[in-house]
């Protein structure tokens, strides 16, 4: 059985500034492009049978620079819709909501382009992704190229945990992680590895 290869896109201006970047589509920074290129060598060493990517340009560019041909752009891999917190840092949110944590307190509604969503909805989206890609694992590895929070929720769901358990899995930009099985049970086989 193959593994799920989890690639978080390279750095953007907002990820560097720690601003919540859900549906705003930003390009990679120069560092982000270098991070993505560094993923090419470890990816070339794997037998990847399917590549599924977020529709966001930052994810698609990461996949291309990592030498991957995207088979499918899946809207279910878009980042968490942060609603009214789009583009805002956690520090700034806590000025008005002391002690706020995304995983516990969620988001507030935003505009029509950023209505916001609860973590449970993110969990439903990644459950759909996992259901569709599992059959490919019989043939080899499947690469998923997307965003920090959605991939953390996906990891929690792979492990059979509630979506909010994604809080346990810190994930940096431009990193590679793998999910697999041990004794037919889902496990993390590597996590948050820097490229190269």
Quick structural summary:
By secondary structure, this protein is an alpha/beta fold. The protein has helices at 13-16, 30-38, 40-44, 57-65, 90-96, 102-105, 119-133, 148-158; strands at residues 4-8, 48-53, 72-73, 141-146, 176-182, 185-193.
Shape: globular
Strand content: 15-25%
Helix content: 25-40%
Ends: how far apart?
Answer: 24 Å
Mean pLDDT: 97
Q: How many strands in all?
A: 6
What's the helix-strand series? EHHHEHEHHHEHEE
Radius of gyration: 16 Å
| Count of DSSP H/I helices | 8
Class by SSE composition: alpha/beta
Characteristic key phrases:
single chain; 196 residues; 8 helices
Describe it.
The structure is a single chain. It is built from eight helices and six strands. The chain is an alpha/beta fold and 196 residues long. Helix 7 (119-133) packs across helix 8. The radius of gyration is 16 Å and the shape is globular.
Blueprint of the fold:
Blueprint: E1 4-8, H1 13-16, H2 30-38, H3 40-44, E2 48-53, H4 57-65, E3 72-73, H5 90-96, H6 102-105, H7 119-133, E4 141-146, H8 148-158, E5 176-182, E6 185-193
Parallel strand pairs: 1-4, 2-3, 2-4
Antiparallel strand pairs: 1-5, 5-6
